[in-house]
Amino acid sequence: MANNENIIELKHISKVFDDGFTAVSDFNLEVKRGEFVTFLGPSGCGKTTTLRMIAGFDMPSEGDILLNGQDISKMPPNLRPINTVFQRYALFPHMNIFDNIAFGLKQKKTPKDEISRKVKKVLELVDLEGFEKRSVSTLSGGQQQRVAIARALVNEPQILLLDEPLGALDLKMRKEMQIELKNMHDELGITFIYVTHDQEEALTMSDKIVVMSEGKIQQIGTPEDIYNEPQNAFVADFIGESNLFNGIMTGTKKARFAGGQFDCVDDVPEGTQITAVVRPEDVVLTDPAQGQIRGKVTSVIFKGIHYEIIVQSGRYEVVIQSTKSASVGDVVGMQVAPDGIHIMIAENHTNFFPVDVNRAHHLEFNGTELHASLTQLVKGSRRGENKELLDENGQVIDPDKLHITAAIEPQDIKMTDDVDDENVLIEGTISNLIYKGDHYSYVINTELGQDFIVDDEYLWNMGDQIGLILPIEKMRFSVKK
After folding, report:
1. Domain spanning 241-345 has what CATH number?
2. Which pick of 155, 293, 315, 343 has the fewest CB atoms within 10 Å?
3. Which residues on neighbouring strands pair with residue 405, listed in sequence order?
4. Where are the domains of the chain?
5. pTM
6. How is the chain split among helix, strand and coil, in percent rounded to 5?
7. 211 near 40, Cβ under 8 Å?
8. Which class in CATH covers the domain with range 351-480?
9. pLDDT tens digit string along 143-199?
10. Which residues of 258-306 form beta strands (DSSP E)?
11. For 313-389, where are the alpha helices, taking DSSP H only?
């Protein structure tokens, strides 16, 4: 087969566990032979579950996994030409390095001379030749990781899966192993699929990055694409550091955001609501009079290769990375070149959620009545003598046959840490947050399994238990037919 053909394809893969939790949802990916593909995302986003399904340790609830065009979705792990390296190396402490690496070959009854030849070859590859008789307990973390990789490679898999393999190493060793892994991949030419939450790791090693959040793919692309052309606010916020600003297109390749007017390279129609992404290194400090916007320096931190400077410009906070320092209290100008601005069409974050019609023919959400007029919603309806809801023929309407959807905007929902507040309609946990320049955008996982997007100017913490106040006067209702 030609090198540019797909070695593995995941088609509409989903994984729902016995407790009803959906770890991966409608995952679609093509991996070409010899590619270095990285699954990147925060903890709990589904990347390891996806890797385990490729390995055969977990079976998909839906979808197909094709290896060289053949469905392997139900094939047991030991029959797949795939090996996995885990964060925990799982080496055998009572065996020396040679026997650890040779273990899989011995299980297959491989001839001794072939085992010796193959073990010697992979030891050279991981730069551990001459270490055959050493006990694994005498090795450093980096050396143990090399042994784990050699043990996987000696089986000559078509695909090598690596699940956070550098997570237990210190920073210096991790950076060295990143380079070594990339060199191994280039030399071997086999397909690597790598899992990490470390953006720098993904950007350094990958041919292709799959960014994931809450079980879904957010973007697939080269490291350059992912960094320079993020497709949504999550990717922009997760990959590196970003300033995100809500704004509007004011003309041809002209945008207004953060209180200023900017030229840009993205040709988006005038009047479009947008989110502008500006990387901190693309903001240039100037004299106040020369800046497209200006503000006051509120923080300066030396980071070794640059200063991280925070400037308050009106209600917006701008993060800048510069080789030139500034002083807290300075009034400065800021400029951004057109190619330093990435324009994304603003995401529609309107919250839609179902509401019930109870036996008294009133709207209800999570056990609380909502005082809204059903007769205005249901065409031709009216209230009967006993306040029941009647159709245009005078017949009582079955509440189970009414399907009502409510909508509310993120900025109209209030968050409180007082979950006993009588105005709280539902409780939830903060599962994600993104700073948008003048406010934070939160994802709230609620007790009903319904996610809500909430905009709030105050910083809350990931995992906070909060109550949501959804004002009835801010809700819009519609009848689903």
Report:
1. 2.40.50.140
2. 315
3. 354, 478
4. 6-228, 241-345, 351-480
5. 0.77
6. 25, 40, 40
7. yes
8. mainly beta
9. 888 888 888 888 888 999 999 888 777 788 788 888 888 888 988 889 999 999 999
10. 260-263, 273-278, 283-286, 293-302
11. 374-377
